[in-house]
Amino acid sequence: MRPVRRSVGLVVLAAVAAALLAGCTADITRDKVQHTFGVTFRRLYIHQLHLLGKPLPPSLLRQVGHTRRLREVGFYTQAHCRRGARHSPQTGAGDDWTCIQYFQRHNGTIAEADYEVSVRTDGCLVATGPAQVVGPPQLTAADGRTVTNPLSQFYACFNT
To answer: For position 70, what pLDDT does the model report?
Structure first.
């Protein structure tokens, strides 16, 4: 009788473990990855422009009284993220996510950057961008300092 109980116990334990592990990735969806990636890219892009001393795209600035204030409305950025091949499930953690980020450069033109994205089971991601579009890992800031390029590789998290 003991071997049967032990086997049943192991099966139940394995089922509980599988359910818990499945629960860790069930809340990782394309929409969450895409939103988190897009918002983070947008903020870091504005930071990069500031570091480089480049003007913000015209639609980013508006006159408010005698001061100019940053406004994100009208600043064009759009992220499209997907996991794996075209017909792969668009959920779960993994190193096979990609995000294409479209954004408005400081001169008004639209650029496209293809990022490789790794999403962990805890809802955090790391995105690595193409140097030919977003610049090298180290940049020379407007004041002459060598700084880390915020768009070269970045981290972000969302609630799972």
So the answer is: 45
One-letter amino acid of 93: A
Rounded to whole angstroms, the Cα distance separating 149 from 135 reads 7
Give the number of domains in the chain: 1
Looking at beta carbons, which pairs linking 137-146 to residues 24 or more positions away fall under 8 Å? 139/48, 139/51, 139/52, 141/51, 141/52, 141/53, 142/51, 142/52, 142/53, 143/53
Does residue 55 lie in a domain region?
yes
Among the listed residues 11, 6, 75, the one whose alpha carbon sits nearest the alpha carbon of residue 42: 75
CA separation, residue 103 to residues 113, 116, 117, 128, 133 (Å)? 8, 17, 18, 16, 11
Q: Which helix (H) or strand (E) holds 36?
A: helix 30-52
Pairwise CA distance, residues 78 & 60, whole Å: 15
Q: What is the reported pTM? A: 0.75
State pLDDT tens for residues 45-55: 999 999 999 98
Residue 14 in domain: no
Structural domain range at position 102: 28-157
In a domain, 110, yes or no: yes
Is 23 domain-assigned? Answer: no
Please state which of the ranges 22-31, 99-108, 143-152 shows the lowest mean pLDDT. 22-31
